[in-house]
């Protein structure tokens, strides 16, 4: 066999064998303290004990050795806004004011393709520096911002989802489209980008208040016409937003009912936040196979509220939930920081999110929420080789704390509470190293 496109990565290897919320945290993981991941043509071929696998590997196969480092699946960010890097850490506003004061003016600049390209490159660099290999991304209302984003992503061959924001009311003129132009532009962007390499398109009606009924109807129609495309939006994030939606859509039972009415729920529908969902809404999310993107740093920072993760998993039919940074409402690209915030929010509700549950949410669980768990989010043969390499002793404090870690679970917990981008030593996409930390 031709060995030239094969790569073997050695280190401590972490693999999920199930959903820890369902099978329990003791039976969801497999771990090799000296493991090997063999990759061929961008796909994981074998995972297991290094000495045994190396004994039958051709010596000519390229090797990347990371002794003492943790090799795990690349992180998956299920909801993020690339044009909002410049408003991250904006002071003193809750959702609606935050959008009007900070976000909309910033997004206005993305009609300029060069501006958008520079921002997209910065976003991608930052994502890879944080070990994120898949993101579901909101661009802006401008089709140029979407072309720029996918163009910048193309050379990295990332499994990425992105789309043009659709918004035709309750926003400044320089940021609005129409029902028809949103339909036409989204359609041609789908033709241009969906399925190109590993890229996927996400129809992106921003949220109910910024779309007319005509636009939501057009979005629903386009989604039904196009196979495999995603649909991403926001739902039930903030109390003032809830009251506004009730005013704007008096004939709908509740917030989710708006998306339900226009055929925007189902597999590959990603709903950001979902903090104040009623039992009816949760049941509809479960029945339709839609997913919630839990955005903990954003929910804390914008003061939106506390998502009830435990209830979502203890629901009669557990909801698909992914983890998300929601930059720039969110305050960090670090998935460690995002897991920490998810832990803290759960603690405030007397639920101690277990590290195995948190890492699952950050990888395979998020992939499952996106119906991509047969492609990404885990280190098993047949999946695409998106990996991150974690330095478990990235700062003096962490190194000191790690000396007292009694087992793998505690080591994982220490990382999710204390680590940040400095802990990401390398990131691989489709079997190629796309980020290497400077030594
Ligand atoms: N709701 C509508 N748009 C946005 C946005 O850009 N960020 C957040 N967090 N919520 C929203
Ligand atoms: Zn958002």
Question: How would you explain this protein's 3D organization?
Answer:
37% of the residues lie in helices and 23% in strands. With 439 residues, it is α/β, with parallel strands linked by helices. Helix 4 packs across helix 5, helix 13 (335-347) packs across helix 17 and helix 16 runs antiparallel to helix 17. The two termini are 35 Å apart. The model has no long low-confidence stretch (mean pLDDT 97). Bound molecules: guanine and zinc ion (ZN). Zinc ion is lined by residues 79, 81, 234, 272, 326, 329.
Chain-wise SSE layout:
Elements: E1 6-16, H1 20-23, E2 29-40, E3 43-49, H2 50-55, E4 62-73, E5 75-81, H3 95-107, H4 113-129, E6 132-138, H5 143-153, E7 161-163, E8 165-166, H6 179-193, E9 200-205, H7 213-225, E10 230-235, H8 239-248, H9 255-261, E11 269-273, H10 279-288, E12 291-294, H11 296-301, H12 309-314, E13 320-323, H13 335-347, H14 355-362, H15 364-369, E14 387-390, H16 396-402, H17 408-418, E15 424-429, E16 432-436
Parallel strand pairs: 1-4, 5-6, 6-7, 7-9, 8-9, 9-10, 10-11, 11-12, 12-13
Antiparallel strand pairs: 1-2, 2-3, 4-14, 14-15, 15-16
Q: Can you tell me the residue ranges where pLDDT is under 50 for at least 5 consecutive residues? A: none
Give the number of DSSP strands: 16
CATH-defined fold name of the largest domain: TIM Barrel
Total number of distinct structural domains: 2
Mean pLDDT: 97
Radius of gyration (CA) equals 21 Å
- Terminus-to-terminus distance: 35 Å
Architecture of the largest domain in CATH?
A: Alpha-Beta Barrel
What ligand species are in this complex?
A: guanine, zinc ion
What does the main sheet amount to?
9 strands, parallel
**β content, as a range?**
15-25%
> What spatial form do the alpha-carbon principal axes imply?
globular
Overall helicity: 25-40%
Number of helices: 17
What is the level 1 CATH name of the largest domain?
Alpha Beta
CATH superfamily of the largest domain: Metal-dependent hydrolases
Structural class: alpha/beta
């Amino acid at each position: 066999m031709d060995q030239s496109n094969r790569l073997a990565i050695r280190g401590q290897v972490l693999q999920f064998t199930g959903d820890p919320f369902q099978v329990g945290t003791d039976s969801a993981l497999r771990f090799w303290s000296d493991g090997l991941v063999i990759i061929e043509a961008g796909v994981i071929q074998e995972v297991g004990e290094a000495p045994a696998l190396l004994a039958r590997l051709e010596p000519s196969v390229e090797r990347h050795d990371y002794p003492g480092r943790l090799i795990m699946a690349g992180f998956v960010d299920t909801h993020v806004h690339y044009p909002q890097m410049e408003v991250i850490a904006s002071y003193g506003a809750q959702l609606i004011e935050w959008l009007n004061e900070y976000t909309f003016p910033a997004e206005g600049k993305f009609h300029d393709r060069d501006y958008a390209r520079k921002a997209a490159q910065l976003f991608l660099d930052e994502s890879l520096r944080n070990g994120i290999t898949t993101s579901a991304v909101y661009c802006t209302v401008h089709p140029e911002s979407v072309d720029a984003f996918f163009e910048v992503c193309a050379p990295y061959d990332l499994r990425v989802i992105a789309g043009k924001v659709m918004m035709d009311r309750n926003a400044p003129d320089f940021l609005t489209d129409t029902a028809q132009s949103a339909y036409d532009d989204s359609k041609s962007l789908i033709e241009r980008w969906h399925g190109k390499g590993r890229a996927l398109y996400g129809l992106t009606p921003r949220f109910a208040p910024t779309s007319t009924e005509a636009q939501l109807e057009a979005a629903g129609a386009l989604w039904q016409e196009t196979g495999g495309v995603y649909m991403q939006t926001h739902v039930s994030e903030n109390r003032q937003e809830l009251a506004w939606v009730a005013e704007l859509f008096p004939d709908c039972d509740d917030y989710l009912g708006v998306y339900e009415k226009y055929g925007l729920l189902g597999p590959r529908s990603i709903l950001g936040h979902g903090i104040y969902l009623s039992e009816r809404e949760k049941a509809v999310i479960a029945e339709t196979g839609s997913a919630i993107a839990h955005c903990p740093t954003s929910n804390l920072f914008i003061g939106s509220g506390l998502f009830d993760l435990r209830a979502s998993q203890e629901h009669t039919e557990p909801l698909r939930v992914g983890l998300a940074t929601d930059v720039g409402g969110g305050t960090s690209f670090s998935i460690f920081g995002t897991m920490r915030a998810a832990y803290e929010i759960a603690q405030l509700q007397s639920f101690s999110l277990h590290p195995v549950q948190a890492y699952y949410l950050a990888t395979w669980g998020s992939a499952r929420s996106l119906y991509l768990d047969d492609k990404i989010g885990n280190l098993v043969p047949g999946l695409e080789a998106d990996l991150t390499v974690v330095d478990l002793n990235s700062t003096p404090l962490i190194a000191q704390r790690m000396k007292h870690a009694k087992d793998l679970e505690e080591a994982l917990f220490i990382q999710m509470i204390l680590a940040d981008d400095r802990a990401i030593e390398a990131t691989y996409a489709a079997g190629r190293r796309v980020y290497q930390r400077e030594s």
